[in-house]
Specification:
mainly alpha; 4 helices; 0% strand
C-alpha cells in the first residue's frame, strides 16, 4: 500500500530530472538514491556534478551505441 508525501515543487522537479527514463516512477528514483547513499556512503560534490552532467548528456542524446564504441576502439 502506498503513502502520499508532500514535496515542494522544486524537489519534485529535481526528482523528475533524475529519472533515467520518462516512465520511471518517483518511487524508483527515491529507491535508487537511497541505495546509492546507503551502499556507497556520501557522494562528493564532484561526483554529484559528474552524475548530473552524465544525465544531461543522456537526455540530450550525447551517447554512443555499443557498435560505435567498438568501432572507435577497433574491437570486434
Amino acid at each position: 500500500m502506498g503513502t502520499t508525501i508532500q514535496l515542494d515543487k522544486s524537489v519534485r522537479d529535481r526528482l523528475k530530472e533524475l529519472k533515467l527514463y520518462p516512465g520511471e516512477s518517483y518511487n524508483k528514483v527515491v529507491e535508487r538514491l537511497i541505495s546509492i547513499k546507503t551502499d556507497e556512503g556520501e557522494l562528493s560534490e564532484a561526483t554529484i556534478r559528474e552524475i548530473e552532467q552524465s544525465l544531461e548528456d543522456i537526455k540530450a542524446g550525447r551517447t554512443l551505441s555499443m557498435k560505435d564504441v567498438k568501432q572507435r576502439l577497433e574491437i570486434k
